[in-house]
Design a protein that fits this description.
The complex is a heterodimer of chains A (775) and B (286). By secondary structure, chain A is an alpha+beta fold. Chain A is built from 19 helices and 30 strands. The longest helix of chain B is centred in the C-terminal third of the chain and has 19 residues. Chain B is globular and about 60 Å long. Classes of the chains: A alpha+beta (775), B alpha+beta (286).
Chain lengths: 775, 286
Amino acid sequence: MSEQVAFQHIEKTSLIGKRIKKPDAPAKAMGKTRYINDMVLPQMLYGKILHAGRPHAEIISIDTSEAENLAGVHLVITAKDTPELRLGFVKDNAPLKDRVRCERDEVAAVAAESEAIAAAAIKLIKVDYKDLPGVFTVEDSQKKDAPVIQEHFPDNKSLKFEFKHGDLAEAEAKSDIILDDVFNVHLVTHCCMGTSCAIADFDHNGKLTIYSQTQYPYNYKMDLAPALGIDAGDIRVIQPPTGGSFGAKLDVYPFEPVAAILAQKTGRPVKILFDREEEFINSPTRQPASMHLRSGCTSDGILTFRAADVVMDNGAYTSWGATVPVIMMRTTSGHYRVPVVDFKGQAYYTNNSYAGSFRGYGNVQMTYATAQHMDMFAERLAKDHDLDPIEFRLKNAQKSGEVTPQKSYLRECALAECLTTAAEASDYVAKLNKYAAEREQKGRYKHGIGLASSIHNAGGAKIHKSDGCGTILKMDDYARVTVITGASEIGQGIDAVIGQIVAEELGVPPEHVTLVNNDSDLGPWDVGVHASRTTFIAGNGARRAAIKAKKQILAAASKQANVTAEELDLRGGYVVQDKDGAVVTRLDKMLRQMHFQPEPDVVMVSDYYEPNSEPEGRDHISDHSAAYSHAVHIAEVVVDTLTGEVKVEKVTMAQDVGRVINRMGLEAQMEGGLAFGLGFALSEEMIFEEGRLKNPNFRDYKVPTAPEMPDLDIHFIESDCEEGPYGAKGIAELPTIVIAPAIANAVYNATGIRFFNPPMTPEKVARAIWEKKNS
Amino acid sequence: MSEIEKYIAPEEVAEAVEALGTGGVTIVAGGTDLTPQINEGRCHYEPTLMNIQRIEELNRISLTDGEIRIGCLATVSEIWYNDIIIEHADILCQTANCFASDQIRNAATIGGNICNASPAGDMIIPLLVLGASVELASWKEGAMEIRREPLDKFFKGPGKTIRNENELLVAVIFDKPSADFIGQFRKSGPRPALEISTVTVGIGGDLKDGKLENVRVAFGAVGPTPLRGKATEVALEGQILTEDIISNAAAAAQKDASPIDDIRATTWYRNHLIAVFTEELLNNVC
């Protein structure tokens, strides 16, 4: 920068709400990024796992001798080599199995010189199985004589959840309309572009370095340690660039300890990388559920109660999937004002695959039910009581300051504004009535419009003892900033947001901020990337650290300029007078002056931000998030009534984002989140037959392609969250949660048929229309 | 694990056909079917891998003496953008538009699509509608011998054809359609790209004075091979396309087809779509 600027004035500007480029985007777009999948370490061996490929069996014997004798094979291990090692939410899982409980079960593993040798060795392992009768539905799992899947759970019952509030009988008596339906949400999976991968490497002191795609590196150590029989303190987690997580990497899965055990026993780094078929079969899914929902409402359009009885297929092991009722019940009790709530959730062990976390965590499932019931009420009330469908929803929409039965405190609530904004922008009511009137007229193609909304935690979710995040910030002699944060970057964009926030506070360009967040030996603690929490929690932490640094600099500058620190500001790489922006000195010069003096004053600050939320607790009555947010989606569809194809033409989205931080990142989250929900609603489905996945490929598991994306009309509602950074709320899950029921409601508007069992595939829709016509 | 012992890349047809005569050869052209099938373990490499992409002669598209000839190496994209095809056989362009994705269209060859003999092979349907034949070249006593077989006799079952292992499919040939020819193609699936057909329908014929003549109908993914819709052809031949004739044809189409249940669709849906698409295509024409 030239010295001429020294006589200028620098205006106060803000980066908040601007479009900030994601720092790693060019490298990713150009194919230069070295993902974990690309990594090769010196002396590295390739690990490969033998999966059972059958749903339920005893293992009579395993003969590994031929595999061991293959040239290039270093080691073959089975459950005999890993006794007592456990993993999983209730420690019902093991790295290698001595009995088969589902198709994906890990029976043996090989470490070899090359991928090809490892693959060949796997084929040489001879396993003698005795197949057992399998349990493939929750109904069969509950039968008296059902085979027992986990010996510690003889009745096949896994996790159970309950929440009750108010007098259900009284509420039912007060209800003029009661809806009673069963919704069955299907199995889908994350389909991360980067398939699962881990590289494990032990040093001579017995310390493990694991290169991992995990999205929760600090608790990951705690979960991985018992699966290896080592101390969590002896694990270092390095997170190279990863090709997506979306919740799939929020637990430890068997391939990770298997890679580590192979590395430990061979003394060499070992890499396990799934191919796409392995990825489909051996990755967590979204939790499927059968949701029996009863909802009541008065003829004035006031909700009276919701009762939900949720039954879940736990699969063979318990990961985070079976815990989703924690959020399902928040939706049941908090998606609109629900005075009386009765929620039950029970998971049953089966011989199917098992679910993990997945973007939307329980809310994708529950909102599919609650938002359709709201639409069914709206239709009845409009028809019988002349109540406008938006007015009905506004009557039941909470307002700022309300508290839900589970004690979620809705400090800033913008549901009403989301509803009116989206309804007006899309001309919702007029179209709804027009399309309903056209439904019974002639014509192959039918238009429909559908509205759905939901609530989600937007200030973290305190399911652990802390929901905090640590930040360390330092500045060098050139006014470059390094931020070491606990927050992981898994593609969601915290790299851009932290750069932006720190740049905002310190008056430097965002590209002068370097983020260090991929090494658990460097970073301070963080819960992980989940619950739409990172911008809120890590953003707050980074901002607080930057403010501390700024104070330190301004205190030093105030001495030099002989003014108070309050009269100074940092702008455009300069220390300036706050009132008129008159330049005092260059920031880098100031930092050097602070540094090179008899009593050096170097900028190195730290912060641990803990949100003001309460732990979830066993009774589920707590303000478990520091903020809550709402979104409304209005989908416009065209249904081909002959082929059953549903084309989503346009979606109007209104979401309470608190405050826009990085507008470009926010838009991308809306688009990407919606794409997930679109696939869930219309085309994606894991097809299992007797516990075996029949479509482990992108040919038959249909993720939406780019041309299927609808036009989006996105409205950001800024409710200015008091606790959030600059007013921001967490945003990433709602776009996935709300779209599917909006499409289902639109398809109903077009066809008069309700789809309670997604996905709404062409065949399912065509058949329902054909049956209705021919009944 | 099968090992490739030798790789050859001839530049002349005769050279390729001679090599094929020695046996133990896997032919690779676009590789868009071969590679995934090898990876899935559905087929294995023979000791010799022969890349035929360097044989320039085999990717030509020509019109000579009323006959259109498409060399086996013509890619789906090349067919789509070829002037002769655009002018005389638009139904191939309609199909190319629905075929896989841009990247796959740029690599996948017409010869490969035919020889892969998938019941759902998209490009086969319009070729059946055009009454195409294939040329199979083999090496006999020091010289190349060519036989010509009608395409509707070529397929024997999923992945199975009458082509012998020592034969190279060098071209697909059909008579230049008349000026009155209309051809229509329809493929199921809401995805604009990368959809494996659950049902495909092709209908072609000469539309003269409101009557449809020389009708050919073909269906994909509703039987063990791509098939001609003989009953549908009878229902349409020489007819004016009234509402009744169209619904007769749709009913005949369901008789022609013998679909199965699989993970992509049920028999019910395939039968349903066959009728829907047949009606749709005929309505497009009249």
